[in-house]
Design a protein that fits this description.
The relative contact order is 0.23. The chain starts with a strand and ends with a helix. The model has no long low-confidence stretch (mean pLDDT 89). The chain has 169 residues and is of the alpha/beta class. Helix 4 crosses helix 6. The chain has a single domain, classed as 3-Layer(aba) Sandwich (Rossmann fold), CATH 3.40.50. It has seven helices and five strands. It has a five-stranded parallel beta sheet, sandwiched between helices. The chain is globular, with a radius of gyration of 15 Å.
Amino acid sequence: MLRIATTGPESSGKTTLCTALSDYFNVPFIPEYARTFLKGKNRSYKQSDLDLIALGQMNSLLSSSFNPLISDTDFCVLEVWSKYKYQNISKLIQEFTAKDFFDLHILCTPDIPWEEDKLRENPNSRTNLFELYKSSLIKHNKNFIVVNGDHLKRVKKSIQIIEKYRNIL
């Protein structure tokens, strides 16, 4: 089995896809640390928090004893968010994004309805953000696929690709 990460803009189906893939392949999934971090704060986050989130995500990834795993985010998320929100990317986030922790990244298209959530910020920027995610994956030479459509279509395509990779590796 592979080490897989979902990525993409807010409310693009990443967590739902992770849950389905985790269940299908019977492997653990690592939740997005940013949600854990931000839920524990009673203030708005700031740029320096992004490095703390990156370290927390890295800790979750490294502490997982499971080689086959699915991660509900990758470091491209923090790179894109840093650049988009603060026009600056920390050295730590640049370093983490440049490394290859995953065999496959699944980029989720924001072609599903926006779901409101206290931690989400940009319902009208998802298409632009999607292009930034795609550019980041290409820039860092990440192995990725794009999934779109309804949940079932995304899951089926992801499973087909993962099965192909499993047979190759």
